Each structure stands twice: as structure tokens, then as C-alpha cells.
Amino acid sequence: MRRLALCGLLAVLMGCSASPSTSSVSVAESSADSGTAPSPGLFADITATSGIVHTYRNGEQADRHTILESLGGGAGWLDFDQDGLPDLLFPGGGEFDTAAAGPGGAPTIRGLPPTLVRNLGGHRFADVTASVGLAESPFYSHGVAVADFDRDGFPDVLLTGYRGIALYRNEANGQGGRRFRNVTAEAKLSANQGWSASAAWGDLDGDGWPDLVVAHYVDWSFANDPKCSYDGKLRDVCPPKSFNGLPDQVFRNRGDGTFDDVSATCGIRSVPPGKGLGVMLVDVTGDRHPDVLIANDTTDNLLFVNRSQPGSIRLEEVGISAGFARDARGVANGSMGLAVADLDANGLPSVMVTNYENESHGLYRHLGGESRPQYRFSTLAYGLAAIGQSYVGWGVSFADLEWQGREDLLLVHGHAIRFPLGTTKRAQLPIWFRPEIEPTGKIRRYGVVPPSEAGRFFQTPIQARALLVGDLTGTGRLDAVVTRLNAPVMLLRNQATFADRHWLGVELTDSSERDWVGSRVQVRANGVTQTRFVIGGGGFASSLDPRLHFGLGRSDRIDELRIEWSDGRTDRWQNLSADAWLRCVPGTEPQRLSPKS
């Protein structure tokens, strides 16, 4: 979150302007105000009938106007009971207890419990939070990071937040079900007391065990809580530039249920502390080892190339030299969310970064480079600047929503402060970009889908934060889940017309239950090759669907499925049927899965 204006005495001291935003009105907003009759469009909001009841609370009713209230919460995608249906986990946030004053009369910060909903099939869910042991609230929470850290075949959960992280092991409950047990202390993770915004899992050192990267935000506390205003009258959330950044952390998984904090030696602190909000692990060099990308708020975005060896994590920061740290003007943006896609049909991951108002969202095109990746800020070239600069971006996803054989781009927005200036609103529109694609599969540029066509979800401003896109029913249709600030989570059913189009889903696994972050999957159909990347983290403060989805257009056969596994193996299978999820194990013929609902 970036704010260019501070007013009143603080503004004088900091030398900042108090002028309102002069950003142009976006294409999407212009279309939404055109008077066009609402269209059902891409998504139907089925939250009311889904059984999902959860609201992330930031405690703003206490009128403390802290930067803590601005972030909101992410979401986690996991099949916690391994029944083949994805479940959903939402952090609860927190509140300020003014009746329980702390030092100096400041209110006590209390966490609110998360919500875990079990997928019953047919877009129906049941709240199982209490029955699985997740009803506790150790701190004011923001993010979710999911991984099978102990490799027992069941996904475990890490929550991030203010003053800590909490690790919950997924265990048998002795009655044929599952429960989560807080193992933070025994895993040697309880020393983390910073403001942890996001986290991501991935095997950095190639030993088969998922390691943990935690992105930290700023040094706010009630002892460091300046008063800020943007109009000279109303107190509001201070910008991140009012605070110092906090160093990020890396924890190496020892494989025995415990972790070593290797932050001081691995290279994550070779650069000054940033103000981390988003983190993603993905292989950007082609060596099958996950590299680390961190989206920082008003400081340089970071790109750590993975130089690790088994048992020893080594990261080299190359953000500036790689062209990833800043925008086309050479300015560090207020960055939040991260996503990747192969824009050029060359098998390389270009990166999308969501940014603050008065900035454009950043599309960083991967130009190549093995050990030294090179990126170019390409927002304007790909048509993404058409929406203007009045948005504050959070969740982001590349996904083939209509099975056309190319990935659309979805963005959700919502302001970080309570009283935006000028015409900028706190609730903002989601945006759907469709790509124009060349015969080779290369994306030429993106165009905004007009809200009149996109439908009601894209016509209604909301205070969005996280965005999950994935197949909840096993039918190939990609639905969406959106978290909001002080408003209920939204479940959106994909109701696109697919006509004669086809799809393929790929799930990577094996008997050792190892982590496959860093792997790359390619599908060739009708002469076009598409690439997807197995990532850790991503989006905003979230864990995304670990499976990979491909739209195939009118192709009902797969010429070749190629998997480059992160452990160095490569598999190829030819002449496969479309329209199913394939469970893929190294060296074994893919297993075709039946829909669960």
C-alpha cells in the first residue's frame, strides 16, 4: 500500500503533498456506469446457499486507525481430509480490546479464530473449525500457507499475522477423521515475533522436505503509532513510509518435525529489510529449483535466485539487475499480490504484481536468461494500463476461465485507507482481462472485458483482498473465492458457456509425498504448447490450488503431456483424452480421476 499524500503536521514534517489523486477514471468504471442492464456474466454469487459463513474482521470499529487494519486476510486451498474435494481455510483477523488496556493505555490486540469449511460436493460446505481443533486465535491473523511439511500425505497449515506464525499439524483424530494440532513450539517456530504478512512453502535445498519463507511487513506498534491524515481533518491509516521494514525469514525443514532459522546465513537478509506483503516460490531460471519472489510495499520487490545444495539453503538477490525490483520509471511500487503465466509460449514464467493507486499494476515479462533471469516491465505494452491508476490491487490470478486455450487475468481491488481522497472509493471493482492470442499461443495483449458482459460480480465495487481460482467440483470449471474486509467471503460459481471446448487438469504426487514446487508442466494440443508452473504461496497472503488446469479450446486430445519434476526427472505421455483430472506419478501412466460432485 502506497500513499503519496500525508496532511497536517505530519505532512509538513515529512514534506509530502496533500493533493488528491489525479488518476483517470478506469475503463471498467466507465462501462459500469453506462446504464447497461446487469448481465449474469461469468460468475454467479452462490455464497448464500454454499454454507460458507465467514467474515474477516480488522477491528476498525475501535477507531484506532492503525496500519494493522489495512491488510485484511488471505485464504487457503487444501484437501485436509484427502477425500478428493478441495476445502477452504480463512484467517479471522483481529480486534482491539479497549477494556483491556496495555502499556500506555493502548488497547489489547486480540486475534479472531479462522474458519475451515469442508467441501461436501455440489458447491456445498460445512464449517468444521471447532471439530478439527482450529478454533483458537493465537494472534491477529492475515495469511495462510499450506503444505505437507511432515510428508505424511495430509496437508498442514501455517497462519501468519501480527506478532507471530502458527503451525498446525494435520493428524488422525483416533475416530477415523482428522484434527489440527498447534505444533509451533515443538517445531521451533515460536521465536518468530515479527509482523508476518504472508508465507510460502517449497523445497529450497532439494532434500525433499518443504522449507518455509515468511515475508514480514513493518515495525508498527502502539508505541510507534503516528497520527496521519490525508485531508487535514480526519485521522486515517498511516502509509508504510511512516515505518521501517522488517527482515524476512527462511526456515529450513530438518525432516524430523523441526525447523532451523537460516535467515542470517542463507542470503535472505543480504539486502535491506523490505515491507513484504506477498511471497511466491517458483522456478524462474529453469533449473527446477524454486526461486523466491517477494512483493514489497513501497520498497524494491525482491527476486532471490536459488543457489542451494542439499542441506544448505543459499539465495542470491538479483531483483535490480533482473529488472523485477521497480516499475518502468525506476520507482519502487506499493506491491501486494503475485501471479505467474507463460505469456510468450516459451515456457518461462512472467510475473504479475498488484500495486497501489497512482501506480499501474506491474506485468514483468520474462525475457529469458538461465542463471540470470531478465524481466521487462510490460504493463503498457500488454494493454493493462487501460484501467487507469485509481485501483488498489490485492488478489490476482491467471486462469483459463472459458477453456479457450489461453489464460485470462483476474484482479480484485479495495482501498487500504478509510477515507480516500477525490473520486477514489474504498470499495472498488474487480476486473477481468481477456488475452488476444497469436496462432503460436503467444499472448499479444490483454483487453478489459466490459462489466456489461462480464456480469454482476464485475459491476459491483467491493473491498476485496484475496482471490482463489480453481476447480471445486472436479468438472474443470474454475470457480472463484474472494475474501473481503469486514464483509462475508464470496463463493462465485463459473457459469460460462463452454460449447464444444475442452480442458485438462494435472495433479502431481508420488508415494513419498514430497513437495513439487518448482516443477513445470506442459500440454501440447492442436500444435500449441501451454505451460503451467507449480508454485508455493502466490496471490495475496494465500495458498492456491496446487493442481494445474489447462483450457484446450476445441481440442479433445492431448498430443503430449510433459512434466519436468522438481527432483530432476522428466516424463512424457502422448495421445491422452481430454476433459478429466489426471493424477500423475513419476514414471507411471497418469490415472484418470472421476468427478467427486
From TrEMBL:
<dbReference type="Pfam" id="PF13517">
    <property type="entry name" value="FG-GAP_3"/>
</dbReference>
<dbReference type="Pfam" id="PF07593">
    <property type="entry name" value="UnbV_ASPIC"/>
</dbReference>
<dbReference type="InterPro" id="IPR011519">
    <property type="entry name" value="UnbV_ASPIC"/>
</dbReference>
<feature type="domain" description="ASPIC/UnbV">
    <location>
        <begin position="517"/>
        <end position="580"/>
    </location>
</feature>
<feature type="signal peptide">
    <location>
        <begin position="1"/>
        <end position="18"/>
    </location>
</feature>
<protein>
    <recommendedName>
        <fullName>ASPIC/UnbV domain-containing protein</fullName>
    </recommendedName>
</protein>
<keyword id="KW-0732">Signal</keyword>
<dbReference type="InterPro" id="IPR027039">
    <property type="entry name" value="Crtac1"/>
</dbReference>
<dbReference type="InterPro" id="IPR013517">
    <property type="entry name" value="FG-GAP"/>
</dbReference>
<dbReference type="InterPro" id="IPR028994">
    <property type="entry name" value="Integrin_alpha_N"/>
</dbReference>
